[in-house]
Write a structure and sequence with these properties.
The complex is a heterodimer of chains A (231) and B (122).
Chain A (H helix, E strand, L loop, with lengths): L1 H20 L2 H6 L6 H12 L4 H9 L1 H21 L18 H23 L8 H18 L7 H25 L22 H24 L4
Chain B lengths: L2 H26 L3 H22 L24 H32 L13
Helix pairs in contact in B: 1-2, 2-3
The chains are: A mainly alpha (231), B mainly alpha (122).
Chain lengths: 231, 122
Amino acid sequence: MKKAIVIFFLAVFGYFMAITFLSPEFEADRNRNGVKDFYLEKTVSDLKTANTVTAIVVNFRGFDTLGEVTVLFLAATALGSILFKKRHHIGERTVLYPASTIVGSGAKLIFPAIILLGAYVFIHGHLTPGGGFQGGTIIATGFLLMLISYRNFSISHNILSVIESLAGILFVVFGFMGLIYGGSFLENFMGTGILNDLFSGGVIPVIYILVGFKVAAELTGLIYTILHEKG
Amino acid sequence: MDTAELIRLGVYGTSILLILIGLYAVLTKKSLIKIIIGLSIIDGGIHLLLIGIGYVKGGTAPIFSPGSEDAVARMVDPVPQALVLTAIVIGFGVTAVALSLIIRLYRHHNTLNIDEIKNLKW
């Protein structure tokens, strides 16, 4: 009975969503007055950044990204405080299956390559697809691989906190430097260079590298907390 | 019906279907883990819908590369892509916090069935 009601409700909901998005009027108006052309033009002429998505995330909507990073920080903090238990439980791993030699050797072999790929992705965030969030996630997967392959692989929570806080503070510092030198918070105050150059886009690569460090530290801490959770 | 219309039907239809499947899971499943999986499916559907709205016929990625400066007219809308990047990160945070709450609930009640978790006290 309950399932029938749910299916009826979902059918009505789906019908109205479908007629909204599949109507010819929606299709005709979809790209008419978009801010797309403005962003595409300004990205090349003012910011000299190849990747428009990065330019929007870090520069046009930089304040939004600061909020996003804060949300991620809050999620990591909330996770730590929800799962907090007596200190002596920390150090014992919930997942206790020993990894085989093949997995261990392979993880050791591939770990530097993963870190290098992550660093490449966030350093080239303004030139190629990718950026701080993606690169940070790749680095965190490298640490996840090491944590599930080696039982006694440990990461210092203090070092992670220092990296994370430092990256966050530097993000805000760059925002205020924009306020001082450029006139508004997170303004791009550095020289923008040449399009498709590694040192181009002014403050964009700097901020995205900071975001990369912050996300990598946060996600690694998150994985570490969950893996050391004892039920 | 031409190809562009078929693509439009496919993308919007798939994303709406994903949202409905996720909502169905959230509304009818008893296991908390399955409810979180349903939330993630809703997330995926919404992301696909937003990216689909930004699509331009025959479009390319909104990235400028040397030698293809004439591609500006064919570039897809970068704004939904930037918004989806934000949404993915927020969705990740929501999932992580929800899973940690589930771990805490399981620690107290020794069950994940929402019908058996009746008292509001932890």
